[in-house]
Write a structure and sequence with these properties.
alpha/beta; 3-stranded antiparallel sheet
Length: about 425
């Protein structure tokens, strides 16, 4: 309790300094910053208690956006404690012109792959421009009344998680239209390791835009630096980029996400398993969409695939049309701790095992892999290696040289210690 008192006292003193420093802005500014800092401190979880995300450092970036017309690329994860950054900035009289919404929408309620429509936010009356509908990139017209674009979205560190593709296209649009970009960085919950094949550029898509591995080991701020400096934007453009770094964070710091990053990643376990289990989205195997524990189980409608059972149902706001809907699936539940030890880090164990089970079922006439697999994994060779009976160790070894080269590249852009 005494330590908590000292921490709150320190925050209050900081607020008093801010009030004096920005007296011309009014005492209200200092009070808002104070309340947000106390709220963020009170709501933090034990493993994440010392981390201060970029968005929470209002004193660091407010001078960068004052007197500017601002747009935000945000969703339900863009919070300071329990307060959304849009509400915080509106309270500080920041001139927000519009909000750009990624996959799943501004409030994070759209299903995976579901088009997000342009709309107007009922709470703030701000226009919401979809970047996951007919257009995935802001147009010159949409940026015409904007000086600076803020990107503040929680990522999970997997190449095929589309928020980083949205960030890329926002950076590109801003570079083309001479607009500034401000990244409010957040921790990467899978940032403690790097794994998987490097994307084959021939398979570039919205679920893989960069020559990076599946588990890239970067925060969005670090990746933005890499994109900008490596010339990956169209015509090798460079955007006017600023980043507010996370405080008290390194790549080994555990981080429990305070808000689920998308409807089907409801907890830390699903986020941990996501890089491995998402590969099954390119197969006939269910990853538990249509249950309340997606990306924490796998299964197929055949008793040979495991003892654990589940039946995918249509769930509003999570999965409208899940794979194997209303069919009893048999497989593995990774929620018990004993099973979690079987699939640590980025694992091909169950992909190979389930391919072999699938092939053994003569009555199953469908192909195990669907047309999405190569796009998802980012190369043309892994599917064939699984079919040819390669072991997981042999497959991993086949991409290790490229992964080592990526590790050298990655180190140039790290903002945080390993």
């Amino acid at each position: 309790m005494y330590k908590t008192y000292l921490k709150v006292k320190e925050i209050v003193i900081t607020c008093q300094v801010l009030v004096r420093k920005w007296y011309g802005w009014g005492i209200f500014l200092g009070v808002i910053i104070c309340l947000h800092n106390i709220n963020a401190f009170a709501q933090s979880k034990p493993d994440s208690a010392k981390i201060v995300v970029g968005a929470a450092q209002i004193s660091a970036y407010l001078p960068l956006i004052q007197h500017k017309k601002v747009a935000l690329v945000v969703n339900q994860t863009s919070t300071i404690g329990k307060t959304h950054i849009v509400d915080s900035l509106l309270a500080l009289k920041v001139a927000i012109q519009k909000v750009f919404a990624p996959e799943h929408g501004f409030r994070g309620k759209a299903d995976a792959g579901e088009y997000v429509k342009n709309s107007r936010d009922t709470k703030t009356n701000l226009p919401i421009i979809s970047l996951y509908g007919k257009n995935k990139k802001p147009s010159a017209q949409q940026l015409a009344n904007v000086d600076l674009v803020i990107f503040d979205i929680q990522d999970v560190g997997a190449r095929f998680y589309t928020y980083i593709s949205t960030m890329h296209l926002v950076m590109e649009a801003c570079a083309e239209n001479n607009k500034q970009v401000l990244i409010l960085d957040r921790p990467n919950p899978n940032g403690h390791y790097v794994a998987g094949p490097i994307l084959d550029k021939r398979l570039k898509s919205f679920v893989g835009m960069h020559p990076i591995p599946i588990v890239h080991g970067l925060t969005v701020g670090e990746l933005a630096l890499m994109i900008n400096q490596e010339g990956w934007l169209k015509n090798q453009l460079h955007c006017d980029l600023s980043i507010i770094r996370v405080k008290n964070y390194n790549h080994q710091t555990p981080y429990a996400l305070p808000v689920k990053p998308s409807p089907n990643l409801p907890n830390d376990l699903s986020i941990q398993l996501y890089p491995s289990l998402c590969l099954f989205e390119g197969t006939q195997i269910s990853v538990g969409r249509g249950t309340y524990a997606p990306f924490q189980m796998i299964g197929f409608p055949n008793k040979k695939f495991g003892k654990f059972t589940f039946k995918p149902k249509s769930i509003v706001g999570m999965s409208k049309y899940p794979k194997h809907q209303n069919k009893k699936c048999y497989g593995v539940d990774f929620r018990p701790k004993a099973n979690q030890t079987l699939i640590q880090g980025f694992s091909l164990k169950y992909l190979i095992e389930y391919y072999q089970k699938f092939q053994a079922q003569k009555a199953v006439k469908k192909s195990f892999f669907n047309g999405y697999f190569n796009t998802l994994v980012g190369n043309y060779t892994m599917q064939q290696k699984v079919k040819n009976g390669w072991t997981a160790a042999a497959i991993v070894k086949s991409w290790q040289k490229d992964l080592n080269a990526y590790q050298v590249l990655r180190r140039r852009y790290l903002l945080y210690a390993e």
